[in-house]
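Quick one: tRNA(Ile)-lysidine synthase from Vineibacter terrae, structure tokens please.
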Amino acid sequence: MDTSPVLPSEFAALMRPFAPFESHPVLALAVSGGRDSRALALLAWQWAARRGGRVVALVVDHGLRAEAAAEAAQTSRWLAARGIPAHVLCWRPAAKPQAGVQAAARQARYRLLLDWCRQHQVLHLLTAHQADDQAETYALRAARDSGPSGLAAMSALVEFPEARLLRPLLAVTRARLTATLQARGQDWIDDPSNMDPRFARGRLRREGLPLTPARALAAATRFAARRVTQEGRVAAALADCAMPHPLGVVMIDHAAWRALPASLARVVLASVIATVAGAAYPPRQDRTQRAVERMRAVPRQSLSPPSGLTVGGCRILWRGGGWLVVREPASIRLQPQGGRQDEPWDGRFTICGEDGRRITDAVRVAAPHVARTDWSDWEKAWPAIAGLPAIVAALPCRGAAGRPLPVPVPGGMIASHAGREAAWARFQPRQPLAAGPFFPCFAFGKGQIVNL
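--- reply ---
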């Protein structure tokens, strides 16, 4: 096994696939104090300095262990001693979750990091995920019978509205990162929770992988190649048969969708459901499959309207010779997840006032008020679809208790509503239909990220 330090020239090669960068690049680095992120900090700092740029370290204190605050302060001092400015970001929800603590902490960590990037207009956020993490991710997903997309493990680049997430070390082993620190005389902090047997990844690290890391990485590489190909097919199919609307719904052309291969039709439907539901992930495969079988049983030219169905927090209704996918009002999340008040409403709509600032108070769901709405005022929203009550029932609503009104949506409601409410809503789901592609595949044997 290669245990040589990572050289600056090698790190430059690992960063090359993520180009172009600014003439003086600014990188935000997620640094925990562990060996992986400390090695990343040193390598990225040197890379940026040679290009006239700079780095900023972001240290997240989750508050899950008594030592967390002291370790965050210690890491900040270590970074400052090397000329790397650091900011400590604290996660302090009103109540920590009783279950799924690591998942909640991970979600909160990314939210804090990305929010900082947005506020400071930093385009690139680097994390220190490495080859051992990638092998573990593959093994954990294989144990859960994840589909081919999940078995591709982590993407080296993920596009977020706030910044793009880069993982340049995915082709580098932890042993080499350890050697990088040792060659520079640098110490690190080992987080005992990484080996905690209460968590699946901790148990895996204690017990060992069920297959060699090399085999796990090779398998992930194969599935990554399949995922890239599949994503291209899905994108083309969505362009052919799915029509999104600013009101937060998607119309599926039944004839075009039914003509797709069954496996591709399922993925397309799952993508649409995730978008309309404001979910981070698509619904379970078995539930989507049952919906696909019912929907594909409807003839291309159905003489009688088939019954609707509910999947993944969405209603799927037959309207105008196609399937209208709308949010199910009963599944709407009125409380923000993770204790964050600036989360999109129900994971779908960003609501802002006239001054552009986000509104989070007094926002309700329109469903109870749909029956007494004057629909003649809404005809221009989507005149080709006879489904406005179902669409509007899932919209955010503000106003007086006696007659609350759905918040105006640019491109979705006529202008007369804007004069009644000093607010507007924009459909910005967690999982957009046109998400960035999985990127890239890896040549682990060469230690180099390569495109297909």
